[in-house]
Amino acid sequence: MSENAKISGFIGKKILRLISLLLIVSFVSFMLIQYSPIDPVRAYLGEMAVSAEHKAKLEEYWGVNTPPEEKFLNWAGDILKGDFGVSLIYRMPVTDVIKERFAASLALMASSWMISGVLGFILGIASGMHKGTLFDRAIKTYCYILTATPTFWLALVFLMIFSVQLGWFPIGLSVPIGVTAENVTFFDRIEHLILPALTLSLLGVAQIAMFTREKLTEVMSSDYVLFAKARGEKGLDLVLRHGVRNVALPAITLQFLSFSELFGGAVLVEQVFSYPGIGRATVAAGLMSDVPLLLGIVLVSAVFVFTGNLIADIIYEFIDPRIKQQETTI
Amino acid sequence: MLLGVVVVVLALILVFMSSGAPVNSVSGASDELVVNVYSHTGEPDTGFDPLQGWGCGHVNFEPLVQSTLFKSADDGSIINDLATGYSVSPDGKTWTVNVRDDIKFTDGEKLTANDVAFTFNTAVGSNSELDMSNLESARAINDTAVEFKLQEPQSSFIWRLRYVGIVPEHAYEKETYGRNPVGSGPYKLVQWDRSQQAIFEYNPDYYGQKPYFKKITMLFLDKDTAFAAAKSRKVDIAEIEINNVNQTIDGYDFISLPSSRAFGVSFPTQYDTGSKSLQGDPIGNNVTADITIRKALNTGIDRKAILDGVLYGKGDVEYTGVDQREFGNPEAKIKDSNLEEAIKVLEAAGWEDSDGDGIREKNGTEAEFDLYYSSSDQTRQALSVAVSEQARKMGIKINLMGTNWDEIYANQYSSAVLYAYSSIDTFNLYHQYHSKEADATYMNPGLYSNPVVDGYLESALRSSDQAQATKFWQLAAYDGSTGYGPAGDATWLWLVTMDYLYAMDETLDLGTPQQNAGSDILGNIYEWTRIDESSSTSGK
Questions:
Q1: Which Gene3D superfamilies would you find in this protein's record (chain B) (predicted)?
Q2: Which residue of B has its CA nearest to A60?
C-alpha cells in the first residue's frame, strides 16, 4: 500500500518535472534563436544576388517579420496538437527529420554507451584492485588525458590513423560508398559504426573508470571485506564476490547520468565521420535559424537526457536505496 | 554476465580489425565513378528538386537527373538542350522557346511544352533560392512551344532557362519529388542517403550523348574528409582546399580548373553624413568615398603577388570581377602594381603624411579604414592580410576585422568588405552596381550610384538581344570616361579569380572541361571516361 503510494507519488513528481523542463527549455531556446543576430534569409542566400521582391518572399517564408510572441504561440499551439511543423531547411515535417536522424544517432550512442560503460568498469575494477601499482597509475594518467582531450580532435586523429594510414575502417559515413540499400549488409553498418562509436566511448571511459576505482577501494577497506579476508578469501574471487557487486549499481547509475555528455559528444563525432545523425541536423538548424527543427530537436534531446536521469533516479529510489542514504549522509 | 558481454564486444572488435576490411579500390567496375565535387554548396537539403534550387540555386550546375532547356558548350557559350531555338519579342517581355518532340521522362511519359510551362509556373512560388520573381507566367502554346511572359524585360533570363531542370507535371509533388525525382536527364537517382551520398545510374533512354560512366556516386564529405578519402583511394575526384596544393597522393593528379569565383574588396562610395540604412546600420566612409583612395589602391596593389602568395598561382588576376566572362570589358582594366603612380595620385589629391606616422592624411582625415572579412575562410583572411600589407606601402592603413557574416553585413555600408562572387549570371552585375537597389538588398554594398552606369545596366537587362546586352554590360564597366571598373569609378578593388582544385584519379579523363565552369564540373560528364591504367602512366 505505502509502496504503491510511493510509486505514484514518484511518477507524478517526475511527470510534473518533465513538463516544466520542456516548457522552460523550449522557451529559452526559442528566445535564444530570436535574439541571436542570425538573419535566416541572409544565412540561406549567402552572397547570392536576388531581387528585392524575392527577398521579401523569403522573409515571409522564414517568418522574419512575424512578432516573436506570435511565432512562439503558433509553434506551441501546434505542438500541443502534436504537430511539430515543417523544417524550413529540409522542407519536410520536423518529426520525419528527427526520426530519420535520431535512429542513426541512437545506434551510435547506444553502442558507445555500452562500450564505455563496460570498458570503464573493467578498467576501474582492475585499477582499484592494484591500487598504487604502475598499472593503476597508468590507467589514472590515461583517464586524466582523456578528460582533457577534445572529442573532435581525437576523432580526427583516429580517422587519420585507422582509416587513412592503416585502412582498417571506412573513412566515414554509415554505409559503404556507392552501394544501394538492398546490398548493404548488417555487418557493413557495424563496420561503419565501430570507429565513431569507439571514439565516443573512449572519452566516456574516464569518468566511469575513475568512479569505479574510488568506489572499489572504499569497498575493499570496509569491515565486511576485512571479515571476508579474515575468512581466507582473496584475489579476484574476493573482488568479484564482494567488490563488483557493490560497485556495479552505483556505476550503472552514473552511466545513465552521462546521457547528456553522450549527446554532446555525438554531435562532434558525427561531424568528423560524416555520420548522418541528429548532431549534424542540429548544427544546420542552428546556423540557419530553422526554428521548428531546432526546437523539435531540443525537445527530443531534453526528453532523451531526462530519461537517462529518470532511470538513474529509479535505481536510486527503488532498486538500491542505499545510494540515496549515502548521498544524504555525505 | 558482464564479463560475457565484454568478451563478445571485444571479440567482435577484434574480428573486424583482423579481417582488416581491405581497402576496396576506387570502384568495382571501371565505368563507375565516385565524386565529391559538389562541395561548394554542400548537399541539396531539399533533395534533387530544381524548383527548390537543385542545379539552379546558389551556384548553377548540371542537375543530372533533369534536362534543361539550354546547356553550355565546352567554350562556355549557351547551346540547345531540350530547346530547338528561342526568340524574344522586341519589347523583351515575351520569350518563346521551342522544345523537342521526341523526349521521354524516365517513367515513360512524354515530355511536352506543358511540363516546361508547369516547371516555371511552379518555380515562381517556390520560396527557394531560385529567384523567379520577374516571371509573370509561362504557357504552352502547343506541344512544342512555350511562351514566357516577363514582368520586366530581362536579358539575364536566359540563365534561368539554362539551369532550371524540367520536372514532369504528372509526377511532381512538392513534398516528395526531391527524394524521388523523375526527369529526362542523363542519370536517374537510385538512392539518397541523406547527408552521406547520392547514387545515380545512367538513364538508358537518354536522348543526348551517352555518358561513359554507368553509375555515379556523389559523396557529401567536407573537404578535409574528402582529402582523406582520396588518400585512401575511395574517391575518383575530390575537390580539395588550396592549401593542399603542394601535397601529393599516389595515383592522383592534382588539377586546377578555372572558375568564376572572383574575390574583391568593396568600398563604401558615399561620404559619412550620419545617415543610416533601413536596418539602422551606419552609411558612408570619408576615406573610401574619395575616388583617389580607390584609384590609388587599384593602381598600387600588386595582384600577381597576391595570386602567387595566397593562391599559389592557381587562378588569375582580376580587375572587374567578371574579367573572365564574355560580358567582361577589357577596357575597364588598368595597369596595376604601380606603386609610384599610386603615390603620385594620392599626393596630387592632397593625401600627404605630414605628421610622419607613415599614414597619409588630408584635412585632418587619416587614410585609414576597416576591412571586414569572414574569419571562417582562410583564403579570405590571407587575401585581406595581403591587401592591408601592400596598402601600408602607399601610406594607407587598413584595419583587419575578421568576424561573422552578420557583423559584416551590418558594416558593409561604412567599411570595406572582402567578398567573393561565383555566379555567372549577369543579373549579379545589375544588383551589384545599380543604384536603385542601394539599401534595399545587400548586393550593392558600397551604395554605388552613377546615373550613367545605371543607364547601361538597365539597357543591358532590358535588352531582348543577348549580343546587345553583352555590349551594354561591358559599357557599364567602362565606356571611355566612366563605369564601375577600375578605369572608371574604381568602386571595388577586385583581386583574383580562384581556380578550383581537384585531386583526380589518374585513370580519369575529363575531356574538355567547360571554360570557367565554376562548380559545374559535371557539366560535361558526357565526355568523361576512364582510360587504361597502363596508357595513363606513359601518357603523363
A1: Dipeptide-binding Protein, Domain 3, Periplasmic binding protein-like II
A2: B127
CA-based diameter of chain A, in Å? 88
Same domain (yes/no): A26, A112? no
Contact B228/A163, CB-based, under 8 Å? yes
In B, which residues are within 8 Å of A89 by CB distance?
45-46
Which of B442, B444, B457, B498 has the most A C-beta neighbours within 10 Å, making it the best mutation to test the interface with A?
Answer: B442
Q: Which of A80, A106, A129 is the last residue of a domain?
A: A80
Q: Please give the full DSSP string across A74-122, using - where no structure is assigned.
A: HHHHHHHTT---B-TTT-SBHHHHHHHHHHHHHHHHHHHHHHHHHHHHH
Is the pLDDT at B183 greater than 80, yes or no? yes
Using an 8 Å CB-CB cutoff, list chain A residues near B36: none
Inter-chain CB proximity A178 and B132 less than 8 Å: no
Same domain (yes/no): A39, A103: no
Average pLDDT of the residues in A17-28: 89
How many Å apart are CA B522 and CA B501, to the nearest integer? Answer: 14
Residue A304 sits in the same domain as residue A166: yes
Tell me whether residue B37 is in a domain: no
Q: Is B295 in contact with B316 (CB distance < 8 Å)?
A: no
Q: How many whole angstroms separate alpha carbon B525 and alpha carbon B540?
A: 22
A128 to A246, B155, B392: CA distances (angstroms): 13, 78, 64
Residue of B nearest to A194 (CA): B13
B26-68 per-position pLDDT tens digit:
445 688 999 998 756 678 888 899 998 888 876 778 899 999 9
User: For the whole model, what pTM was predicted?
Assistant: 0.81
The string of pLDDT tens digits covering residues A61-96 is: 888 888 888 888 888 888 888 888 888 888 888 998
B17 is a domain residue: yes
Q: What are the tens digits of pLDDT across the range B63-84?
A: 999 999 998 887 778 899 999 9
Asked if the C-beta of A192 comes within 8 angstroms of chain B's C-beta atoms, the answer is: no
- E strands along B223-268, which residues? 237-240, 252-266
- The domain in which residue B509 lies consists of 1-32+194-253+501-540
CB-based contact B102:B154 (threshold 8 Å): no
* pLDDT for residue A281 is more than 50: yes
**Residue A195 and residue A63 share a domain:** no
Q: What digits encode the pLDDT tens for the residues B329-346?
A: 999 999 999 999 999 999
Same domain, A48 and A101: no
Chain B, residues 50-89, CB within 8 A of chain A, namely 52, 57-58
Q: Would residue A89 count as lying in a domain? A: no
Q: Say if residue B380 is in the same domain as residue B485.
A: yes
Residues B325 and B462 in one domain: yes
Q: Is B225 found in the same domain as B342?
A: no
Whether residue B39 lies inside any domain: the answer is no
Is residue B518 within 8 A of residue B59, CB to CB? The reply is yes
Range of the domain at A258: 94-329
Pick among A119, A152, A164, A175 to test the B interface (most B CBs inside 10 A): A164
Of A43, A50, A274, the CB nearest to B196: A274
